Structures are given as structure tokens and as C-alpha cells.
Amino acid sequence: MEQYPKYRASEPVAIENRVWPTRRITRPPAWVSVDLRDGNQAFARPMNVATKIRYFQMLTQIGFKEIEVAYPASSAEEFEFVRRLIAENLIPDDVRISVLTAARENLIARTIESLQGVRQATIHCYVATSDLHREFVFHKTEAEITEMAVSATKMIAEALEQNGMRDAIHYEFSPEEFSDSRLGFIVDLASAVHDAWRPNGKADFILNLPATVERRPPYEYADMVEAFTRSYPYMADTTLSVHTHNDQGGAVAAAEMAVLAGAERVEGTLCGHGERTGNMDLVMFALNLKSRGVDPGLDFSNLPEIVEFIEEVSDIRIHPRAPYTGELVFTAFSGTHQDAIRKGMAQREEISARFKQGWKMPYLHLDPADIGRNYDGLIRINSQSGKGGVVYVLEKEFGVYPPKTMHPEIGAVVQKVVDAEGGEINSADLKRIFYDNFVNAEGPYRMENYQRASVGDRSGSNFSWFINGEKHELSGQGNGPLSAVVHALKSSGLMPFFKLEDFSERTLGKDADAKALAFVGLRCGEDSEHTSLVYGAGEHSNIDRAAIAALVSAMNRAVACGALKRP
What we know:
This protein is an alpha/beta fold. It is 39% helix and 19% strand.
């Protein structure tokens, strides 16, 4: 029998009249990528130096101005990476690298050694501060932990002075497990560290408040950050930073709320890689801001290429539904969603004018083009899809624009195939289904030896008409070739009643050799109550022949579905 409850909620921070919920983010925070340190240490096979250099260069191209690159005292490879960045002049002039160290003399000395010759950098030192860590890992009092932090800070400051590096190096301190620590202790500790460093301005001293393990909901974390800003006396010359993890799935929300609460700087990784469930996803946070009209200052216009590289070096596939980075993030399978997207895309200008913004679209909160995605994958077809999605794919990928009254018939045919086969069908399969069922529909009727003739100002048509293989020679006149064929069939006495009710055509492509695709809708049967249309399609290099082929296809389809009596 357990003596205590297995789990307890964290004690909320006592804060009155909190203001962070009323604020809005109107400009991006300072972004810090910790991919090369925190992200890399969580890979089963960490990156080698050459790969880390490629990753670093990608980060600078995206637009990161501060990048935590290594824990140089942890291994020879980490040390070598920092040295190569500096010695080979791989760090752009406007980029500051950051290196991590624990509060231990030998590690600090090795860290400073790695930075020799750097133009600008940040040394990031941390000490664990939670009661759990302090009492059961370190076996130290709060005063002893404070002394550890202060001694390490002074050691770093003095070593930098001795090496002539003090002006080039900023200092970052993290009370590790801030979100699981006593707030009053953190305020006192941070104040002591500040006094030990004696910053030369706001940028020179960074205080990072990490949710090392996510034990609190994001709103409680934000309360802690705001409460800290109210009690900490040196906000004027301190840059407040946050570092969140995703153990409970709230890393991005926690970081966003922390910015509302006063944080100016945010640490995270691309795609959220990092220990356990990962760090805060910088891509998600940045693009959330973009979708709200705030320029994040980071360039993700080639996001698919970025994701491909990250998957390569991490050997971890991004979940297909991961926000922004997943393969399916803009994909709709639902028929109603597909129809709404199709209609929205067709009315982009009208929607923009109505809402006075460049992008507003059903079910799409961000323009896929902004992150290097095209519109081809917006709609994919499975058993949940409707006619709208099917037609959208035909239109956008193949230039097939059937009349609106034909859409239900196409949707029903495709749905039948998908239900029978199960799963998803790709666009090539969709085109095949359309052509098999509407363009190349076989049945009892077939035409051969078509010849066009002119009879005064009218068109004439002569052709061989086959009914179940039996050949008949027919001729007719009309306002055009199609009407001439219809006249010939109706006057022959060989056909059940039908009425040509709809006709349209469109050229497939823009070159001179492009084929024409025609659509014919027939109303069949002598029953005046009959209201359904049966469609066929025809493709030919000659537009008249395409229309006639569509008529034949429609007749065969009418027989197959029972709308036209079988001969």
C-alpha cells in the first residue's frame, strides 16, 4: 500500500493581477538555436564535426544570430568543432556562438580555451536548483548552491580578464530546473550571480529560466516568469531568456506565454529535437508568429529541404502530422474540407478583399508556398474524400475541368473504387479511374469511319455506327458536327430516347499540339420524371472529334447505369 499519492500537482505561484494574459506578441524574441548542443546530445548517433559544420551553416542561412554550438569540455570532438569554427573563420560577423559549461573549475578552463581567438561569444554556465536535485543529487543547501554559482561566475569573469577576452564574451547563467525550484531562492541566486558578473549592459548578462523537465502547465510557467520579473531587481541590465522542454507537450505554448510574461530571448531546436520528448520547436514558434502577421525574422521558405537534412543527420523521421514540418500538415482527406479548400482557392482575390489580408483560406492557416510547399498535396483522396477533392486534383494536376453538374458522378465513381480497394489513391490512379470510366467507357455502342460534310450552311456527318458489333451506316445534319451526329442517331430509329442537355470543352495544355477534352451530358429515357444526367468525356486532337467521342462514352455509361435501355 502506497503511503503517499503517486503524483502531485506543482504548487502554483502566488501572483495577483497578472498581466501576461492581456499582452500580445508583436515582434519576435531573440532566437537561439541549441540544435548543435542540446539537440545533438539526444541523437543516438551524434553528428561528427563535418556534419555539425554543415548544420551550423544551415542555421546561419535561416537567419539565426545566436547559436549554442557545443559543450566543449565534454569531449575532444566537441572541442574540435568549436576550434574549427573559429580557426577557419566559419562564423559570420553578425553571428554569436554560445558554449555550455557546468560550474566546475576544470570544465570552465577547458571551455575558455576553446574560445581563444573568437570575435564574440557567450559562455553559458548552469547549476541545478530544484529541491529534488539540490538535496538528493548535490546534497547541498540553498546557500551552498548559491556559492557554487557565484564562484563559477567569478572564475569565468577573472579568466576572461586574464586572457583579454572579457569584452568579447557575454555571460549566460541558468538555474537548471527553474520551473521546479523555489522562486524566492532563484531571485536571490540570480541577483548574486548578477553581482558577481557585473555586466556591462543588458546584452552582456543573460539570465535563462529553463523548464528543464516540463512538470508545470504552460500558464503556471508564465506565472513564474512574470513573478520573477516583479521580484528580481536587475531587469534593466539583464536579458531574460527561457528554455522549455516538451515532456507534457506544451513547450511551444510555454515559450510563447513566457514571452508574454517578460522573456526577451528563446532557446529551442528545429523540429523540437532534444532530450526525451525534445526541446521547444523553433520552427513551430516562428511560423506561429508568421501566421499571426508577425515577421519572425527567420527564413523557412525552403522548409522541406531543411526537414530533409535534419532527418538525414538525426536518422529520425518527422511525424507526418507535425505542425509545419510534417508531410500531411496541409492535406485534407475529408470531403467537406476538400470542397471548402477548392472553393476558397478559386476565390482568393475576393476573400482577400473581404477580410483585407493577403491569405485567409478554409482549413489552411498558412500559405503552403511560404514554407516551400506547393498546392498539389493539399487534397488527397481516400474513402473520406468527396467530389470536391476529387475534382480539385483533376483540375490542378491534370487540367481536367469537368462541368459542375458532372462532379457528383465523378465523385461517386471514384468513391466506389476507393471503397473497393481501401486506403489512399494517388493522383495518377485518380486520372486512370477518370479516363477508364468517362473517356474510354466501353459498351454496346461504337463509332467508326466518321466523315464531316457540309450541306449549305449546315454541318453533315457520315459514320459507321455499331450496336453490339452490328454495323449501321448513318448520316445526319445539324448546326455543328455534334448536332449532326445526334440528328443521325435520333432519326435512325435504332436508339432509345435521349436528349443532349450539356456540352463543354477545354484544351489540355497551351501548346499547338494540345488535345481537347470534351464533356457531354445526356438526359435519357422517356420518363418525364427522370431528372439525372449521365456524362461522358472524350479526348482528341480535333475538338469536334473529342465532342463526338464524349457523346459515345456518355451513351455507353447511360446503358451501364441503367438510364438508357440496353439494346
